[in-house]
Amino acid sequence: MWIDRHIEPLLLQRAATRPVVVLTGARQTGKTSLMRRLFPNHAFVTLDLPSEAEQAERDPGSFLARYPPPVIVDEVQYAPGLFRHLKAAVDRDRGRAGAFLLTGSQPLGLMKSVSDSLAGRAGIVELEPLSFAEARAAHPHLAVEEFLVRGGFPELYANLDIESEGFLRSYVATYLERDLRQLLQVSSLRDYERFLRAAALRTAQLLNRSDLARDVGISGSTAGAWLSALEASHQLVLLEPWFANRTKGLVKRPKLYLRDAGLAAFLCGVHTTQALHSSPLAGALWETLVCAEIRRAQSNRRGGWDLNFWRDRMREADFLLHRAGTFHLADAKWTEHPDGRDAEVLRKVARELSAGAVQSMSIFCRAPNAYPIGAGDVQAVPLAVPAGFEGWI
């Protein structure tokens, strides 16, 4: 079963205007399937095969002779030596759009190779897991709580018979065994798995690296390196605080979010919707899902807004989007009926910003329908309502 992705128009536009397109993202987000579906007339080769990766690395000229453009090269990070030859091939026919379509799951080495050899030649697109709207388009009766626990990996919705807990357990094991070993020299994968679970338990919280390192029993420098590995492998995002006046008592530490709420729930031991409803972590997991949905809406539709959060000693807004002096504010509430007190929190933050600069205030919740709260300046918005993101993109 194919599930349409909202990023497809962007990917097609980049391939129609740039000689090289690089599609990055975590494993199992559907990069290969998406490329092959959108560009069926391109040749295809995957460097997951050691023999292909070895030739691409050791004899790039012969490799490109075997696979002339237009071609899709999957998992291209396994042959960094190929990029210099790609540059030469592109420069011989610079006007040919969509000649080389590349995918990769490890952006540290991949992006370095792209910036060193393909600067100005490559369009870069990042593929996230499914959004709730994408999953629900394929399965109209899907509840948002089910989506949160199941996660956004496309394979789980192409076949609903796949048991999500087993899939996510295998996903973590594959990540630890494959991606991590190439990103870091880790003496104990068990220690790193404990670190991964400890990070998941802190999703939607301010990051305290010292506390995280202490709980896992590692040094602060090791914790920093491991956090960087989580970011580099698209498992985690650090959301920075917004502040225009450094003299104010605003929080300066980032907030930690796992990119996929289902993976976060799995690592926290929340495997069913019943467990979610009874868990003290429900609010944090809901906020993690909302963060992912906002980021996906921005990425898929080229919104161009910067995403941060606001927090001082008295006030907090979970999400603050800003562009050219204008703002959107939002909170994530694990409730079906946010009330006036929830709305007043956003109003207090809005009063700290420039007069008239706040374009909207929203509370993303589990309400069945969108509705105004109080005076109507704050909207309760369910994730099932695509219009809830219209002003944000």
Q: What is the residue-mean pLDDT, rounded to a whole number?
A: 88
Molecular shape: globular
The unreliable regions are: none
Indicate how many domains the architecture comprises.
3
Q: Roughly how much helix do the residues carry, as a percent range? A: 40-55%
Q: Which CATH first-tier class of the largest domain would you pick? A: Mainly Alpha
Strand order of the largest sheet: 9-10-11-12-14-13
Quaternary status of these chains?
single chain
The helix-and-strand class reads alpha/beta
Written overview of the protein:
Helix 11 crosses helix 14 (261-267). The longest helix has 20 residues, at 164-183. A six-stranded mixed beta sheet has the order 9-10-11-12-14-13, sandwiched between helices. The chain has a five-stranded parallel beta sheet with strand order 2-3-4-1-5, with helices on both faces. A three-stranded antiparallel beta sheet has the order 6-8-7. Helices cover 44% and strands 18% of the residues. The model has no long low-confidence stretch (mean pLDDT 88). Strand 11 (326-332), helix 17 and strand 12 form a beta-alpha-beta unit. It is globular. It has 393 residues and is an alpha/beta fold. It has three domains: 8-126, Rossmann fold; 132-289, Arc Repressor Mutant, subunit A, CATH 1.10.10; 301-392, no CATH class. It has helices at 8-17, 31-38, 50-58, 60-66, 82-92, 107-117, 132-138, 144-150, 155-158, 164-183, 189-201, 209-216, 220-232, 261-267, 273-278, 282-300, 340-352; strands spanning 20-24, 43-46, 71-74, 100-104, 122-126, 205-206, 236-239, 255-258, 306-311, 316-323, 326-332, 358-365, 371-373, 378-382.
